[in-house]
Design brief:
alpha/beta; five-stranded antiparallel beta sheet; 16 helices; 17 strands; 34% helix; binds zinc ion
Length: 551
């Protein structure tokens, strides 16, 4: 062999080995050569309000609503059919962190927490030697639900318990002055309301930047950031409302959005808000998103300034969307239609994700954790039901699967709202249930509801190919109806089997502690004893499995 060919051959082999070494983290450098991971969750963010998913603000079409997120998408891959496991924060984030569907993680009511037997995304990174930090800004991300597991630091960016205690005190004083009954239970309902007007992105960023500052490059990091300002109330920072609706002359603002009788009359179940005012509220929602996007841009800028951008995997998702009367309601946690369950998902892995690639296949929120662990080489969550999306990014073999979303909300205003929905690439099925007594193990029994108008089971099938908004239900005699139900049946049985194969703690160990650290602090600030009852009710019993959608 000629010397030059020898050099060429072994030179190429050497380069290949070098690349492999970097990929596997064998070579030194910052974090031992392994990539950092940043996971961003934006609460209540509809997919169809991001620029990268085609959104142009109604009254300011030339103003980009999400320039920083769009720029991330241009560098990474964009999932065009990503879906959540539910339409509210607690179960959706449980799915995000455990890689399990709601049926398997079981955190579907306020009383439950992530089973201590479960592995979580943060735990896997911690075990793999990552420095882990999480900063959250909504009450349902509290550590009492199990979200703190695996984080070296896990902190709230909401107003401090001391400040909240003072606000509760003022509120209780107002109730007393107007002769209305009040007690310590006010703390819990006030906490929820306070999260609606509190503005938290600034505090989340301060904590995140502090965390990044403390990283010395000895270990890779996993950073989780949960932004809440897109969540109602829609009260954007000064000037942003005008930017997205410069011509508005009406009186509607986004304050107290969920509870206003001039928006929705709960006693009649009727929408009261007019079209133009609703358009303005959507512009306020855009403005809130624009503010959050700006804060996210500052995190990206800090990573670039520190030279970490090309060493950091970034994933951006939402837990669920928000509805503006597309199906007769507002807010979220009421139905499971697409405005609530379709979510954005964007992934950028330095050197691995083809810039700007769009991925049309259906993916689930609980695929996120397996994907990040796969790309970071941090070892899988053993029990995970979700799958790494890497084959989709790299064009490998992929077996399509559907997604089941669920909501089990009962006790609110005395009317249970228990539903599930299934989707594949083409169809949507939605079912509604009622509670019908208890079984002999004390579990509340679920049975299918009957639609008041049609007198048929509350079960609707939509063909999103001809009806993307999910408004026109197929006739049960339509062959597409049967095709959809067969797909649902198959995925339902798989989800049940996955849940049944998991080891679960005893019921007592799956209930969340009665009070969070924050609530204990507020109680003591207000002079109440630690064991004061804040819920005013017994813990809810779990539900029996939903009836199978199978013939
Ligand atoms: Zn949420």
């Amino acid at each position: 062999m000629k010397r030059s060919r020898f050099v060429l051959l072994f030179g190429a082999l050497g380069l290949g080995l070098l690349a492999l070494a970097f990929q596997q983290g064998w070579l030194g450098g910052s974090g031992g050569g392994r990539l950092n991971v940043l996971l961003i969750s934006i609460d209540s963010l509809r997919r169809d309000h991001l620029g990268v998913y085609g959104h142009r603000p109604e009254y300011a079409p030339g103003v980009p609503v999400s320039p920083n997120i769009d720029a991330l998408a241009n560098e990474g891959v964009v999932f065009d059919s990503a879906w959540s496991s539910s339409s509210w924060t607690l179960p959706a984030h449980s799915a995000l962190m455990t890689g399990l569907s709601d049926r398997s993680h079981g955190v579907e009511m306020d009383d439950f927490r992530i089973d201590p037997l479960r592995e979580t995304l943060a735990l896997k990174f911690q075990q793999a030697g990552y420095s882990t930090g999480g900063f959250f800004s909504g009450p349902y991300l509290d550590p009492k639900y199990g979200f703190g597991k695996g984080f070296d630091v896990y902190e709230s960016g909401m107003i401090s318990p001391e400040e909240l205690a003072r606000a509760v005190k003022r509120y209780a004083g107002q109730l007393e002055a107007s002769g209305q009954p009040h007690g310590p239970q006010v703390i819990r309902s006030f906490r929820d309301r306070a999260s609606h007007w509190d503005r938290t992105s600034e505090r989340i960023n301060r904590k995140a930047l502090g965390f990044l500052e403390r990283q010395d490059g000895g270990k890779p990091f996993f950073l989780f950031l949960h932004y809440f300002d897109v969540h109602y109330d829609y009260i954007p920072p000064e000037g942003l409302a005008k930017k997205f609706d410069p011509g508005y002359t009406g009186k509607m603002d986004g304050n107290n959005w969920y509870f206003r009788p001039d928006v929705f009359d709960r006693s009649e179940g009727k929408r009261k808000i007019g079209e133009r005012d609703l358009g303005h509220v959507r512009a306020l929602y855009d403005a809130e998103l624009n503010g959050v996007d700006d804060h996210i841009g500052r995190i990206f800028a800090a990573l670039k300034k520190k030279g970490l951008w090309d060493r950091t995997i970034v994933m951006l998702v939402a837990d669920h969307g928000d509805e503006f009367f597309e199906h007769g309601f507002l807010g979220h946690r009421s139905t499971l239609f697409r405005e609530l369950t379709s979510i954005p998902m964007i992934l950028r892995v330095p050197g691995a994700t083809p810039p700007g690639k769009r991925i049309p296949e259906l993916v689930r929120i609980y695929d996120a954790a397996p994907t990040l662990l796969d790309y970071a080489g941090a070892g899988p969550i053993e029990d995970a039901e979700g799958r790494s999306l890497r084959p989709l990014v790299e064009g490998g073999a992929w077996e399509p699967r559907g997604v089941i979303s669920r909501i089990t909300h009962y006790g609110f205003a005395g009317s249970p709202n228990i539903r599930d929905a299934w989707r594949n690439e083409r169809y949507t099925v939605v079912r509604r249930f009622l509670i019908d007594g208890q079984d002999d193990r004390g579990r509340l029994q679920v049975r299918q509801a009957i639609d008041g108008q049609t007198r048929r089971p509350f079960l609707y099938v939509f063909d999103r190919r001809s009806d993307p908004g999910e408004h026109t239900a197929l006739d049960p005699a339509d062959p597409r109806f049967r095709e959809a139900m067969q797909g649902f049946c198959r995925d339902f049985q798989a989800a049940e089997a996955h849940a049944a194969a998991l080891k679960h703690s005893s019921l007592e160990n799956r209930y969340a502690p009665d009070k969070s650290q924050e609530e204990l602090t507020i109680l003591s600030q207000l002079g109440y004893a630690e064991d004061t009852d804040l819920s005013g009710r017994k813990k809810l019993a779990p539900l029996t499995p939903f009836p199978p959608p199978c013939p």
